[in-house]
Amino acid sequence: MKLDFTNAGVVTVTMIDYVDDVIKSWDEAVTKFDDGFERVAKRQRIATAAPEDLFKVNDDAVKLNKEKAKVFHSIVAMILYIVKRARPDAALANAFLTTRVREPDEDDWRKLEHLITYLRIAHYS
Questions:
Q1: pLDDT-based confidence at 103, cuts 50/70/90?
Q2: Whole-model pTM?
Q3: Which residues, in sequence order, are CB contacts of 100 under 8 Å at separation 6+?
Q4: What ranges do the domains of the chain cover?
Q5: Taking 90 as the threshold, does the pLDDT of residue 12 lie above it?
Q6: Which of 26, 57, 94, 107 is the most exposed place for a label (fewest CB within 10 A)?
């Protein structure tokens, strides 16, 4: 976390290195767990951290295996730290995902992917 006091009476908080770590963790997880096909949505501009169907829970979605669920939980927790310190714009999406860490499914993984894509676009723009 970097605190910038350059302007009198104003502090700017950035977590560039930590966001880089989260994105790197996600990329490693995708390489390990996904099938290698890139979804078309990854190429589109994402305006918000939350996908349109954020609060829709698909009861028929396949649950993540224990190893992938552990990675899901870890990345959501890392993003929670970012949200609390420097990126409140991602709070809504992350708040929902934190409710899904006990038994995440493939639909939750897709929603996390959306959030990571949003952070990546905002981070590297």
A1: very high
A2: 0.84
A3: 76, 108
A4: 16-124
A5: no
A6: 57
pLDDT tens-digit map of 66-81: 999 999 999 999 999 9
Closest CA to 122 of 91, 95, 89, 94: 89
- DSSP code of 19? H
For the chain, the residue count is 125
Strand duo 12-14 + 2-4: pairing:
antiparallel
Tokens coding 116: 């990571």
Q: Which residues contact residue 89 at a Cβ distance below 8 angstroms, ignoring those fewer than 6 apart? A: 49, 122
End-to-end Cα, the chain, rounded Å: 19
Residue range 12-40: mean pLDDT, rounded = 85
Average pLDDT over residues 100-110: 97
Identity of the amino acid at 87: R
What is the per-residue pLDDT for 1? 81
